Amino acid sequence: MTTAPISNIRNFSIVAHIDHGKSTLADRLIQMTGGLSDREMAGKEQVLDSMDIERERGITIKAQTVRLAYRAKDGKDYVFNLMDTPGHVDFAYEVSRSLAACEGSLLVVDASQGVEAQTLANVYQALDNNHEIVPVLNKVDLPAAEPEKVKQQIEDVIGIDASDAVMISAKTGLGIPDVLEAIVTRLPPPKGDRDATLKALLVDSWYDVYLGVVVLIRVVDGVMKKGSRVRMMGTGAAYDVERVGFFTPKMQQVDELGPGEIGFITAAIKEVADTRVGDTITDDRKPVTEMLPGFKPAIPVVFCGLFPVDADDFETLRAAMGKLRLNDASFSFEMETSAALGFGFRCGFLGLLHLEIIQERLSREFDLNLIATAPSVIYKMKLNDGSEIEIHNPVDMPDVVKIAEIEEPWIEATIMTPDEYLGSVLKLCQDRRGSQKELTYVGSRAMVKYDLPLNEVVFDFYDRLKSVSKGYASFDYHLTDYKPADLVKMQILVNAEPVDALSMLVHRTRAEGRGRAMVEKMKELIPPHMFQIPIQAAIGGKVIARETVRALRKDVTAKCYGGDITRKRKLLEKQKEGKKKMRQFGKVDIPQEAFIAALKVDS
Fold first, then answer.
1. 140 known ligand binder
2. 481 and 501, same domain (yes or no)
3. pLDDT tens by residue, 164-173
């Protein structure tokens, strides 16, 4: 495949809400342009979703790129660089990177479901990158499809003209040639100067066992040649380029990549940490002066502790996390210890789905059995001496008398829901201390904007939202700011010993309910011992909820038949003394399952 003139290159990404058919459309485009033969496609849906977990859940996690060759109706040969992006809110940073490398987007909307919250979020991101947008209505062959109504919806909600939206069914292949023509005629070619100094954007990087770090780049100006020496402007490191190429989705090597092209390079880079996403790559001998704008770094918002069930697995866990970190720059971790759970790591994630995916990959790819503590967010604490600290583990919270004010992060959530579930969705948001900002209608669907504390959202908000709306509501959020809050640290005491893995920061008004739910759950989970065990939820020195696990009783009077009552009484008194002593020195074994189940407690 030779280098095409820049006017015949089209770089585009596919954006959509989860399950609207992005990856399936990508499959059809690859098939129609001959990127893979029918034999290679056979029996394999969503070619670009390479991880097992992506296929099983039917979601895209990593943005993937493919180069396709297409001969248009005007007889010219075009080169398409296609980016398939994730639709889930937790992976929005993957979307932003893909969009920065492209000039246009295909906006895929399900013709039966219409515009969803994530559709909006991704389209606004594309518009921020000055993208030309081509609306594509997918699943028009379904009996429930209402293309005219959805076109109107796109115009009302997003404000882009959808009168000439392309009608397709990605599953059956209907309308795919029209999409290819629309890419040629309606999306702009990239701009760039072949004779200028090399300037390329580092879009993504991952670790390959054989090649070292593979770097995905978008060349802006100049030419990326095999054998040239390049410099990463962010880190200042210089490397000799060993391979240059692109994906079709198989790796193809070429001698050079010109302006406007998207491809990969390898250059004996050992660590993914050496390649900062959003960095500018330039010629080592005559570097450019200005860097490209790059991306906003991915900031973790949800934190939780991960501990191996078997303490011997700690080193395996450390190695596994190091490997995952190689391919996922947004995942961060540091070591921590807990009295109840032993050695483990405090990890930062972009959201709950990200947490779940990482946990599943650790257990599946590295065969680890893990316990995760309750998810928490970053709190800012202003102390009386004027200093400010950030904590994301309730165990690290300083003494209450030293704290002047605690601030918690707030988000703005956009929720779209069919009208009949609006009441229960609003009630859910009110229960989570939310304040309503606006409520508008798009056809028969309501769009609500709410300010919510992130603390309430990370717990189980998404699951509750799906259950109160029978799965029809969609949800998107972004962090807004920090606001002061009346938060308290709630501890769970078992036999008067605090269990650090179960302590959490909660709002004062909700502490009692959360505490009662926790102790009731723990009562069911802790097996009876030879002595009674009190389980308490406490704030400071004040107990707000209590349950007791009854003691096992041995019938010590079984062998006394007849005779004086004082004999029985003496034995019972002796048992009582023993139980008292036991309770003083006895150790309560809390089974691992109890932790896992208690952390899943539903408020």
1. yes
2. no
3. 888 888 788 7
